[in-house]
# Entry
Amino acid sequence: MNLPYLIPRVFRHFMPESVARFLLKRRWIIRPGLESSDPAAAAARYAETLSGRGAALRGRRVLVFGYGGRFAVGVELLKHGASHAVLCDHVESLDKERNLELLPAYADYLVIENGEVKPRREFITLLHGDITDKTIQSQIAQVDCVLSTSVYEHLDGVEAITCALASLTKPNGVHIHFVDLRDHYFKYPFEMLRFSESTWRNWLNPSSHHNRYRLWDYRRAFEESFGMVEIDVLVRDEEAFRKLQPHIRPEFISGKMEDDSVTSIRVIASKPKQS
# Structure
């Protein structure tokens, strides 16, 4: 029994999400993802991925899925030449302090209203709510690019959300998603794969949710909604997987070490199937 893992996991499971968001905003205990910790690097990575496909951000209407309440990655994408950024999240939880820090450097895209930083509507649209809700979808026009970093592993209902995002994508649009497949107690990258679904859901799953999808699950989910799907493996950890393999549940083992040991992927999806 791995108590150094289980005790913090149980604590994190029962921690109210409001507390988790408070800690995340202050970068205490819970680490933010790349889009929050280094938004310039995140935007540059999206731009480089598009460039590698012979495309560019310039003139593109982009949707950042799961922006975390911080405008930084949006204004960085605009700086790279995007024409408009839709910042989308399930709940509205603006990080007012860090958004304020973006001024005056990004005054072209942001404005002060009643002492708070607001996006200039001609450049940035905020979209909050369940993206599978048709009412929410109707609030924006289709986009050229949908982008996310370390968001997909937290989704509950991956297939439905992917379908919804595909419907918001222009026929010639593209998705770029960076997905972290590790247990987010990073010291134990595959530990979460030891537990049954009921044990995980009832006792260990963090309030931010971790769906435990593996490489093949993401491939299936994206292929349901897109005609072309490329999944690039960015990182593997065969040593850690082999060490824990006798304790990993069979549903998380494909029998191919090159797939089973994957800890980080990049999904590039195009040709959305319009429902």
